[in-house]
Design goal:
Strand content: 5-15%
Oligomer: single chain
Number of strands: 14
Radius of gyration: 24 Å
Helix content: 25-40%
Distance between the termini: 45 Å
CATH architecture of the largest domain: 3-Layer(aba) Sandwich
CATH superfamily of the largest domain: Response regulator
Length: 585
């Protein structure tokens, strides 16, 4: 006698849709209201499709079309797709900074996943903070699922020059201030920078995080590199919908995919890409959700082993389209086969090595071989320590000036970015090319939200002298598209009494990147005296509305961790799972 087939595994959605009683009738009625009869949903896994498309965030504007492609794939795979909206964090519009709202979006998406009859999910992201926020949410809910990142814009062209998002704008800003460019020129160039849907086409934070998600195994192979408008992206989205059903059926959760090995892979790929410093903060936050031990020093130690292989702005010459046509992320990872752990699991259900098997480099100017890198091993992200940053600070060597990697100069201190911007064009500003600019109170609590303000522009008087870079230090962040010798993420931040709060204009500061050192030349006794003279600052006492207290901002300030801990909320670290909540009726 043939054996009876095994009983189907209970699905999470059964608690809503296969139950009896008043509540179950209501839940099924909602699907009926969508035009879905019982025959269309019976026995099928329900796959939520989180869509961060928004007119307030043009980088993500095309995601609704991708969501429909995912839904078609879910149907074909035997599932029931349900598209739902999420917050959308757009760098171009939101103030004071999207980083303030990354944790809020992570909370929103996590609770949406947990509160609804979902067996799996596909989350669609694009602009910088939507990607880490969605991955943080998925890890905390530990629901079978994956991300789809939206892809980069097409390459910009302006008067015979190739333009890169952000990177070219920072140069245009200086050209405008020195009269080499007019406002009308800038307006024309801005259109050239925004030729299509998609996020920044440099190796900024959006492109970096897309590559990180794919390297971590939480996105199907190929998504990170494709331009936003490439039709192949829709075919991959369809495949992702189909794969999401298989994920739900196999109950393959992020907790099985995100291991120490996958995070070490991500750090190595980050170094090879010359990726954004913001990835450090986001990966620390994601690891904190996953319960994977990861520290700031891991980025320095592990990243030192890997040379810079990708020649993309802001560390190089090319853009994401070029990276795609050169073979993209799979080809880069194939170059790193001797150092990556290709046994790491991915959402495809296969090992990372399977995803890059057969990948080839088609343009070795864009993706270099390991024996002929753009920059040698040890030239990537450096983590600094010293009496100015006892909990660490970060500098991106590949975007900095080699002659400034060891530097000693007198500090010129500003208590806010606004204070600096008010003085930057003053011809009497007491500054020369050796000065170390310090801009503080831009950290997670102080601003609040740790904005991308650390790469402040060069003072006008120095621009006129031909100075294009100088050492700048801040407890804030900078855009992944930015460049310059900028020390970032100083922890603890000045606003909470970190040593950066003790620095005064005229103090001597010594930076030695090779020695991983950042020091203010003060004795411990002098620093102790200054610490005693600090006036305690109430987080809400000196900020303009709506930052005076209450609401989400107060929640943020009360619970946000420092940069070296990923600037996540202390109450959100670790996974909370996806247990079915109590009935609503």
């Amino acid at each position: 006698m043939p054996e009876d087939p095994p009983a189907p595994r209970p699905r999470r959605s059964d608690a809503w849709l296969a139950a009896t009683g008043r509540g179950a009738l209501s839940h099924r009625g909602i699907l009926h209201g969508l035009g879905l009869g019982s025959d269309a949903t019976q026995g099928r896994p329900v796959i939520g499709i989180g869509n961060s498309a928004s007119d307030l965030n043009p980088c993500n504007a095309h995601l609704s079309a991708l969501a429909r492609a995912v839904a078609n794939g879910v149907w074909q795979g035997g599932g029931v797709p349900l598209i739902f909206p999420t917050m959308s964090l757009g760098e171009g519009m939101m103030r004071p900074t999207t980083m303030l709202y990354r944790n809020l979006m992570a909370m929103e998406v996590e609770e949406t996943l947990r509160a609804n009859p979902l067996d799996g999910t596909v989350l669609l992201s694009g602009c910088d903070k939507t990607t880490p926020a969605m991955l943080m949410a998925l890890v905390s809910a530990d629901l079978p699922g994956m991300l789809i990142t939206g892809g980069a814009k097409l390459t910009g062209h302006f008067r015979g020059e190739v333009l890169g998002s952000g990177t070219s704008l920072w140069r245009f800003e200086n050209d405008l201030r020195t009269g080499r460019m007019k406002e009308s020129d800038l307006d024309e160039a801005d259109f050239c920078l925004n030729r299509s849907d998609g996020h920044c086409m440099t190796m900024g934070t959006a492109s970096t995080m897309a590559c990180m998600v794919e390297t971590l195994g939480m996105q199907l192979s190929g998504f990170a590199s494709l331009p936003a408008v490439d039709k192949q992206r829709y075919a991959l989205a369809h495949a992702a919908g189909h794969a999401a059903v298989q994920l739900a059926d196999s109950d393959l959760r992020p907790s099985r995919i995100l291991t120490r090995a996958s995070f070490e892979n991500a750090i190595k790929v980050l170094a090879a890409l010359g990726g954004s410093t913001n990835a450090v903060v986001h990966l620390l936050a994601i690891a904190g959700r996953a319960g994977v031990p990861l520290t700031l020093d891991d980025f320095d130690r592990i990243g030192r082993e890997v040379p810079l292989l990708v020649d993309l702005m802001p560390s190089g010459r090319y853009l994401m389209e070029d990276f795609c046509y050169a073979g993209g992320l799979p080809a880069l990872m194939a170059q790193l086969r001797s150092t990556l752990d290709f046994r790491a699991l991915t959402v495809s259900g296969k090992a990372l090595g399977d995803a890059v098997s057969g990948a080839e480099v088609w343009n070795r100017d864009v993706i270099r071989p390991v024996d002929a890198p753009v920059l040698p091993a040890g030239s990537g992200m450096a983590v600094l320590r010293g009496n100015l940053c006892p909990n660490g600070a970060v500098i991106k060597q590949s975007a900095a000036s080699p002659e400034l990697m060891k530097h000693r100069g007198q500090a010129l201190v500003f208590d806010s970015p606004e204070e600096y911007h008010a003085a930057v064009n003053d011809p009497a500003l007491p500054v020369d090319r050796s000065t170390v600019i310090v801009v503080r109170n831009a950290g997670p609590v102080g601003y609040p939200g740790m904005p991308e303000v650390a790469n402040v522009p060069i003072p006008a008087k120095l621009l006129e002298e031909g100075v294009t870079d100088m050492v700048r230090i801040s407890d804030g962040r900078m855009s992944g598209t930015a460049f310059g010798t900028v020390v970032l993420h100083v922890a603890p931040e000045a606003y909470v009494g970190g040593p950066l709060a003790l620095v005064r204009s005229g103090d001597w500061i010594a930076l030695d990147v090779a020695a991983r050192s950042l020091e203010v030349e003060l004795t411990e006794e002098e620093m102790s005296v200054r610490q005693g003279e600090l006036v305690p600052r109430e987080p809400s006492g000196d900020k303009p509305a709506p930052d005076r207290g209450g609401g989400y901002v107060e929640l943020y300030r009360n619970h946000v961790l420092q940069a070296d801990m990923g600037a996540d909320f202390d109450i959100l670290r670790g996974a909370r799972g996806n247990a079915v909540p109590r009935p609503s009726h």
